[in-house]
Amino acid sequence: MTNKKCVLVLILALMAGAIGLIASAHAESSPPMKLAVFDIELDDFTAGGPIAGESPEETARLQKMTALARELLTQSGLFEIVDGSASTDQRVKDHWLRKCNGCDADIARALGADLSFVCFFRKVSVMEQYLEMRIRDARTGRLTHVSQTDLRGETDQSWSRALKFLIRYQLVEPELARRNSVQR
């Protein structure tokens, strides 16, 4: 290859890289959406679970998972977090948003958010559990995202792995990919 061709290839490669960086920066510079993140809930289907209520260990684990979710969502850069627990609505206090047929959208809008985030662990047994995440448009109440996964074992590690998996692979990475493709 001649020197002129090598220089031309190098210049084209640098230009392509620069264009990619500009597109990436533009996608990342999209303003974050205000996301009302409500406390993660427990939907207990075990024998006696609904009657007994949450154990102190489950309550502590749910608080840890809520803090982790807020941290991961903030770190993504996609969202500005609005604390959903600041609402005075009784359904928020009772951790009943998973069953209120979309009332979280109205509550999120009242908090000044664009979107609502409701997440819950469904416990079938100590060994069989599911995690579901729902995001709604606060203006329309329309579900914009639903994802779920199953998990085994009732431990901090199993719950945090499931939560990290859903947030990263089902929400953040697909959204970043979507924004990058729209920007190009």
Description of the structure:
- With 184 residues, the protein is of the alpha/beta class.
- 49% of the residues lie in helices and 22% in strands.
- The protein contains 6 helices and 6 strands.
- Helix 1 (3-28) packs across helix 6 and helix 3 runs parallel beside helix 6 (156-183).
- The protein is globular.
- The model is unreliable at 6-28 (pLDDT under 50).
In short:
With 184 residues, this protein is an alpha/beta fold. 49% of the residues lie in helices and 22% in strands.
Order of helical and strand elements: HEEHHEHHEEEH
Low-pLDDT stretches are 6-28
- Mean pLDDT across the residues is 87
Helix-residue proportion: 40-55%
Give the tally of β-strands: 6
- From the N-terminal CA to the C-terminal CA, the straight-line distance is 32 Å
**Main β-sheet description:** 6 strands, mixed
Q: Assign an overall shape.
A: globular
List the helices and strands and how they pair.
Elements: H1 3-28, E1 33-37, E2 41-44, H2 49-52, H3 56-75, E3 79-83, H4 90-93, H5 103-110, E4 115-123, E5 129-137, E6 143-151, H6 156-183
Parallel strand pairs: 1-3, 1-4, 2-4
Antiparallel strand pairs: 4-5, 5-6
Give keywords.
184 residues, alpha/beta, 6-stranded mixed β-sheet, 6 helices, 6 strands, 22% strand
